[in-house]
Predict the structure.
Amino acid sequence: MGTARILVVDDERDYNETIVKRLARRGFLPQSAFSGQQALEALGRDPFDVVLLDILMPGMDGIETLREIKKRFPGPEVILLTGHASVESGVQGMSIGANAYLLKPVDFEELLAAIDQAHERKLLGADTR
């Protein structure tokens, strides 16, 4: 199925780096971005299969970042993460085109399952173009 390239977008540096290390150990190709702006710059430089996107970030929040990603880079599947159980932002994110919505602290196995499902969806989408 190929190795998924994953962009982890979260302003909490320790959390971001922990997720990146754990994903790398599982054979993924993860990269960090610490803001919505950094995420857009990274997507402009490199192709990613899946974006893990925190909703609550200073400056450009996850929903705004998701809108820009979908407008400029329709390729990657986006999984929203939030530490605050906001059903409205999850529903809003899904309506904009997010693949899934997970609450932090996320169970790592649940996260891996969501990444696999998103990556599979991306590959299937790429095959039908």
